[in-house]
Amino acid sequence: MKIKSAEFVMSNSNVTNAPKDRIPEYAFIGRSNVGKSSLINMLMERKKLAKTSGTPGKTQLINHFKVNDEWFLVDLPGYGYAKVSKKKRTIFQYFIENYFKEREQLVCAFVLVDSRHDPQKIDLEFMRFLGENSIPFAIIFTKADKLPSSKLNKQLLSYKRKLLQHWESLPVNFLTSSSSKLGRDEVLNFIDQVNKD
Ligand code: GTP
Ligand code: MG
Description:
Blueprint: E1 6-12, E2 25-30, H1 36-44, E3 62-67, E4 71-75, H2 86-102, E5 106-114, H3 121-132, E6 137-142, H4 149-163, E7 173-175, H5 184-196
Parallel strand pairs: 2-4, 2-5, 5-6, 6-7
Antiparallel strand pairs: 1-3, 3-4
Bound molecules: guanosine-5'-triphosphate and magnesium ion.
């Protein structure tokens, strides 16, 4: 898919105020600092479309971007970051959960996980929540540039094996790096295909 345009539409803390357009929507979710906003910038080939930071907890709202005037891409706050105050965390979780439950336009959630790490409880719980709410999702392994390829392959194999203890079949998954652009075509082609179906 060629990206002809990518524009910021609006930020919200409440899904009921999100854009009303009935166009397909894809959301990026995962632990704080996993690389959601960086991945969005990499996919759109725009350095500063979504705000990124080395400090976890950068994205705090539901951010809608319109792509090619045809679909929405949504950058969400991360979950599981201990340094955000407890009160704020509860509010975060509430509106993230609400977003997924209420947003009818959502066709697929991309759950981002760091390719260096073993499955984390919070990620598995989040995938289960999506499954229970019949929300299709794909997994994106991020930061592939951070491990040498032999270690990376071993880690991915082990991750997938562990996932199969929770899921009957492996969800669609992608390996990406926002610095090397690895996985860009694969993710965009997947979105293109789902948009056509
Ligand atoms: P929150 O909005 O805080 O939930 O974080 P996020 O998931 O949006 O992460 P963000 O994109 O802000 O990236 C967090 C940090 O990881 C930044 O310092 C990025 O530069 C770095 N980063 C993200 N993706 C990659 C990647 O593919 N490779 C490398 N080496 N660093 C990355
Ligand atoms: Mg972010």
